[in-house]
Amino acid sequence: MQKKKLWLIFAVIVVVILGFLIWLAPNATVGSNQGPISSSAQNTTGLLPAASDLPHASGLPFVSNSQQDTEINCQLVLDQSNRLVVNEQTRNCFEYFITQYGEKNIDQIKQDFKAYIQQGYQEPALKQILDLWTRYIDYRVQLGSLKEPSLNKEDPEYYRKIFASMKTLRSQFFSDYEVDGLFGAENTYHEYTLDRMSIMADQSLTEVQKAQKLKELFAQLPEDWKENLEQLSKLEDLRKLTSDIKARGGSAEEIRQMRQNLVGAEATVRLEKLDQDRSNWKSRVNTYLEQRDNILKSNMNQDAQQQAIQKLRDQQFNNSQEQLRLGAFETTHDTGGKLPFAD
């Protein structure tokens, strides 16, 4: 379950930059009765009955039209004293109702949430839930009024200042315990992403040194995050650092050292084998296309040309998968596009 949540967080805020920009969108600020509401709530089965089965004072369901085929995602956790345990599920519950913004106004959402919670929870949990809900709504409204830093968006400090503003705002509405419960997983990812950006932007470091620092940073992550982030983050880092070394004319030895620092010796050997395979494929394709061009420019009739090209294709690419891939290169080559070789 934890792994699933981590992947969902990754998919929703898989790019933290986009999330920051969404939070700061100018059209997010509205009047005091309607706030800047957006959500990434999961549509999973809640602890209470399905929304369509619940009575409602106005005769209308608690869910909006777009949520008619879902069940309310309110898997709130209580301790043995019937007190609310604040965690990511608490936030998911709040966000499920907040996603109705636009189809319902804030006042209606607040009313629906209160009526829904009152049907399933008793004191002291009931008071806790409603109090935290009220503060969460106020926080979400204020989130849209954060000021954009007057820095270049290419500068990691731009995003770090936004994140700092978010954390400051949270401290105004929630206790440390509540902040950790509601935003702990998100904060872990944001901090890791921002630190990676800072390492990548540090011009005092070589790519080899950056790889070592990225490896050390990754080692500091909680164990449950490592498994989910390892492939994605390391693949991105490898591509960026390799591209930087090649762009400045760096050597193959520098690429090797960078890879060894980042992913280890065994993975480096596999990557070098992949490089060789890609180089061989590129050479074979370019040779084939050059010979194919010569055939097309010859005085042979069209049928003879096609027969000669097919013979050439069969001689140089003797399995169906390679010939299928080759078709994309032929089409791109004939239209003057950039050949789709992997970097």
Task: Describe the protein in words.
The longest helix is centred in the last third of the chain and has 32 residues, at 265-296. Helix 5 runs antiparallel to helix 6, helix 8 (207-219) runs parallel beside helix 10 and helix 10 crosses helix 11. The chain has 13 helices and 2 strands; from the N terminus they run H-H-E-E-H-H-H-H-H-H-H-H-H-H-H. Strands 1-2 form a two-stranded antiparallel sheet. With 343 residues, it is mainly α. The chain has helices at residues 2-13, 16-23, 88-98, 106-120, 125-143, 156-173, 176-201, 207-219, 223-247, 252-263, 265-296, 302-316, 320-334; strands at residues 77-78, 84-85. The protein has 3 domains: 2-190, no CATH class; 202-263, no CATH class; 284-334, no CATH class. It starts with a helix and ends in a 9-residue tail after the last helix.
Strand content: under 5%
Give the total of domains.
3
The average pLDDT score comes to 81
- Output the radius of gyration: 28 Å
Specify the number of helices. Answer: 13
Low-pLDDT sequence parts: 1-60
Shape: elongated
Helix content: 55-70%
Strand order of the largest sheet: 1-2
